[in-house]
Amino acid sequence: MRLVLVLLSRLPLEMLYAAGEIAAFVAFRVLRWRRAVARANLLLAFPELCDAERASLLQRSYRNLGEIIAETLWSFRATRAEIAARVTIEHPEVVNDETRAGRSVLLMTAHFCNWEWQVLAGNGVLDRPMHSVYKPRRQASLDRFAVEARGRFGGTPIPHKALTRELIRHRSEPRVYAMVADQIPTIDEPKHWTRFLGRDTAFFIGADAIARILAAPVVFVDMQRVRRGHYRMRLERIGAPPYAPGRGFDIVERYAQALEREIRTSPADWLWVHNRWKYPKG
């Protein structure tokens, strides 16, 4: 599988876009892959829209996913300059000022627009490499490809189960950690409940704990598509030490609010195929 992906990455981006469009069509029309889940999520999040409007969002979300797959494959061979030409980062000083002062920074992002390009673009302008936290894939060859792709311009992807060890090992040095934090915790995991897109929604609380352990500022990564294959990233601080004890999960709450604003700006760019509301608040 890795060899196939590497070979595909050699194709021009326009050819990969064409392949992505075919893959999106097959997933949506033929296989109906996670289509019921995505449709149900859109109904829960946007009950005020008519059926035709939600249907349009649904189709566009699959098409966007096809584009992201194409762009991720292409970026395996892309240069720093090519990535920089396609992703503009606003306010990098929000991170650089902190690391220059000797403090670590926690970046929080989501499955929105092309999240895979965020690490590559960030490592082109940030003083310190981004170490992305990830959940290893079941297929070893696919996981190896993803790790290689994310670590091309610096930074070592960290399996989520090894994060605590990494935090302790490097606690004395300023580092930049990046987390995709919009997935739902399992029903038996600690979580924070909040109103999100009009629904009671559970979020992981790990980011709050990490920020407090490291006394690190927290930065939300807002990403918007400018046009096909071109994005804008804006770095916005949503938390800063000192963190008062006993304040609940302020950072997670602010992240949820920032993410909802981002999604409402361009709903089709979020990954709706995740079963975000698989269990009720108990």
Outline:
globular
Can you summarize the main beta sheet? 7 strands, mixed
The tally of beta strands, per DSSP, is 9
Alpha-beta content class: alpha/beta
Helical run tally: 11
Strand portion: 15-25%
Strand adjacency order, main sheet: 1-9-8-2-5-3-4
Please tell me how large the radius of gyration is.
Answer: 19 Å
Q: Indicate the percent of residues in helices.
A: 40-55%
Order of helices and strands: HHHHHEHEHEHEHEEEHEEH
> Which residue ranges are poorly predicted, with pLDDT under 50 across at least 5 consecutive positions?
none
Please tell me the total number of domains.
1
Q: Give average pLDDT, whole number.
A: 94
N-to-C terminal Cα separation, in Å?
A: 41 Å
Task: Summarize this entry quickly.
The protein has 282 residues and is an alpha/beta fold. The chain contains eleven helices and nine strands. 46% of the residues lie in helices and 18% in strands.
Structure in words:
This protein has 282 residues and is α/β, with parallel strands linked by helices. The chain has one domain. It contains 11 helices and 9 strands. It has helices at 2-8, 13-30, 35-45, 51-75, 80-86, 93-100, 116-125, 140-150, 163-169, 206-214, 250-265, and strands at residues 87-90, 105-109, 130-134, 158-159, 176-180, 192-196, 199-203, 218-227, 230-239. The chain has a 7-stranded mixed beta sheet. Strands 6-7 form a two-stranded antiparallel ribbon. The radius of gyration is 19 Å and the shape is globular. The model has no long low-confidence stretch (mean pLDDT 94).
Topology:
Blueprint: H1 2-8, H2 13-30, H3 35-45, H4 51-75, H5 80-86, E1 87-90, H6 93-100, E2 105-109, H7 116-125, E3 130-134, H8 140-150, E4 158-159, H9 163-169, E5 176-180, E6 192-196, E7 199-203, H10 206-214, E8 218-227, E9 230-239, H11 250-265
